[in-house]
């Protein structure tokens, strides 16, 4: 084990007394206390919470990896600290893999544990690698042996990202490795925040003996999965049930004023607050412990201005002296308050003016198309942010209503500094000029805040991702085709205005009434407009990013085409871009298409009609073109939109019997035969033929 990463074997709870152990059971192993519901040996633990003690080292029971435990916590937060080996992949001088370990550890065989998303983060080390675990990952790169620097982890040799909730496996998937002899191995690991700092020498660590500390959340997940459904586990008096925030289930805590183990009878005992420190339980008078709380009173002859738990006790004044002092002090304070109020009003006015100017207001107010809202107006529009819609790239998004009853979405931008003032104003000008039915319309902005707020039109159906993967909603093929057409037209329009989106994905395709798609969250287009094409700040969703853009930083319209191809695959398969533990939609669809000359086996299982299958085949073939490795082999967005529109036209004529359509290359049907018999036209892989009696008309 790498000694630089060892975590002290300490309990997270404050005192030993607060960890009541189950009577008759082994109290500890290797210096680690074992509080119930954990236990060593038969009858000493709750099912799924078994701990094994082998050679003086505690490990999680029911897990074959012998995962070492360094501490267990029952209250106030249910956690287990463990050590896990890093995942790695090493290569020889030709780039071929010669040694690897994917790190896979099923931490959830009995449903107890989840990897804490709030206490851990993912690190990737390497010189030209991308590592993905459970749909999240990042890219680390370096062009020479000296480019990585100790303490720097922003992409050169090292990158790190937060992880989502619900993870139960440490499985790492390594992307292909370049031939770089100065950096022979790639590494991926999840580690407790604050417990790892990158060092350049770690690019040559021995992955086979290196482990990292991380925290696991745990909860009671059998029988009752929430407090609302009833529970019998919190057996101690003065205990309470709390719903888990990382997956289903619940855990127990002692109520305020008590401590101990809520999972054992009489496990929660009264806290003697008077014996603790004043910082923990303040009292400026005489303290007296009570059951579940404590009293604090000033001694005789003294008083406090309020609660003596918060205010110092002082000698009492005679009434007349207090009255005179109070009147004089009141007059003084009243005068001071008036002056302070006047000063504050002037200060607030100056602050609002400064923020308005800092955020480019003096430039934007010259534009007649933009509505500039005041802070007061925005508060009224959003009803003081009372209806949150979700979280965008830069902050929260709220629902609002304008004075004319128009519903809008109000979202945060990013903080505008002096260097970005003019750039922000120019970006607003560009967005205000974008008037297309399939691009989310900017209605106005508020500049009197530290962080500008932007007011957009409202798309009430939510995102395409929600429709495809969250909501159980019917999605007919013709509606999917309409969504694809509208989205393609929106992107084509952006490209015609010299704007590249940079983050095309289902989350950023919003759906308004009648499922009209709206391109939103322009991602990199916020910084790459008109003539700028290059960036090292790759902020898009990594699974959708064009490999050429990812490797070079060169963002072109064809980069958006690649990402849109991935969106088309999600539309026809209703599978997320990363599904299951190892499934990559792009890789799997390419493989199926190349081997079977059809994507039918990956289509949405809810699509069974032959006419619908033909349409999906055509869309799938178009997606494959969009996902070509070389940008020159991909169509542009205008051609993509035209192909989809033509497909809709032919599809409509097929339904009316005017055309008969077949998927190109269908067994037993050749293009030549059809051409001799009728007038034919192939649109994105769908071959449609007009009957002979109509072909000449």
Please, could you describe this protein's structure?
25% of the residues lie in helices and 24% in strands. The chain has 697 residues and is α+β, with helices and mostly antiparallel strands. It has 4 domains: 1-218, no CATH class; 227-271, Ribbon (Laminin); 361-457, 2-Layer Sandwich (Phosphorylase Kinase, domain 1), CATH 3.30.200.20; 464-648, Transferase(Phosphotransferase), domain 1. Strand 19 and strand 20 (268-270) form a beta hairpin. Helix 6 runs antiparallel to helix 11 (637-655) and helix 8 (557-573) packs antiparallel against helix 10. The longest helix has 40 residues, at 319-358. The chain starts with 27 loop residues before the first strand and ends with a helix. Residues 1-19, 523-538, 665-679 and 692-697 have low confidence and may be disordered.
Compact overview of the structure:
The protein is built from 13 helices and 37 strands. With 697 residues, the protein is α+β, with helices and mostly antiparallel strands.
Task: Give the secondary structure arrangement, pairings included.
Layout: E1 28-29, E2 32-33, E3 51-54, E4 57-60, E5 68-73, E6 79-85, E7 87-91, E8 97-101, E9 113-115, E10 120-125, E11 128-133, E12 136-141, E13 158-162, E14 173-174, E15 185-192, E16 211-218, E17 239-243, E18 250-254, E19 258-260, E20 268-270, E21 286-290, E22 293-297, E23 302-304, E24 313-315, H1 319-358, H2 361-364, E25 371-373, H3 375-381, E26 388-391, E27 396-401, E28 407-412, H4 421-432, E29 442-446, E30 453-457, H5 464-470, H6 477-496, E31 509-511, E32 517-519, H7 547-552, H8 557-573, E33 578-579, E34 583-584, H9 585-596, H10 610-626, H11 637-655, E35 660-663, H12 671-677, E36 679-683, E37 686-690, H13 692-695
Parallel strand pairs: 25-29
Antiparallel strand pairs: 1-2, 3-4, 5-6, 6-16, 7-8, 7-15, 9-16, 10-13, 10-15, 11-12, 11-14, 17-18, 19-20, 21-22, 23-24, 26-27, 27-28, 28-30, 29-30, 31-32, 33-34, 35-37, 36-37
